[in-house]
Amino acid sequence: MSRKARLWLLLAGGLGVAVLFACAAFDMPHFGGRSHPYGERAVRSALARHTANVISSVNFDQRAFDTLGEESILFTAVLGTVVLLRETRDEHTEPPETVHVDPPVRRYALIALPVTLLIGLYVIAHGQLSPGGGFQGGVIVATALHLLYIAVDYKALERIRPAAAYAVADAAGEAAYVLLGAAGLLAGSAFLDNFLPYGTFNTLSSGGTVPLLNAAIGVEVAAAIVVLLARFLDQALEIEGGGRVGTGRKNGEGGRS
Question: What does the alpha-carbon distance between residue 47 and residue 53 come to, in Å, rounded to a whole number?
Fold first, then answer.
């Protein structure tokens, strides 16, 4: 296809999107009104399915398919980062230099690590009951692990963060979400339909499939963030050579970035 033909195709597509956007904008309800039908329906549906946190009901029940797309974006981004930042033939890995950590920093980071990890797990486990959930809790869990890098050094972080194992966990979290959705089809309902018993309202077992999907998201997000940071930290601290700007250390320089 010629350059001119591609340009006309782009203009035609852009014009179509602009027309659809304008039609949608003109048909939108007025801002600041007193009637909020979507909010009322979302709350009613959440309560009907014994999910105390309406946001989690929306994310993992009423629009669970959209959440699958959001999860897949993170999964694809991590996969792309792993491919782009892999060690090439003209690069080699060297152990990072040992750095000194001030005792107060070490002490408070080691204290904060288990507390932060516990908070992250709590946020994931109670996603269907209170604000938070798998996305937020997963980030907190990944952050907790990296407090060991601040408290000790990069070698200590590597010992509790085998990147290959977390990559498997990332894929497992993504697959678990899809398989839970497919289980709805086997149960005779729709993909990602809430087909399990709703349980007792305001308990950990309430919400049907909501806590399970939320847990799958928590595993995927936590593992994805760990793998993502692992690749960047490897480039900054271990991988040398290749002549590429912004990768590895130069002239023997080390330390944290």
Answer: 9
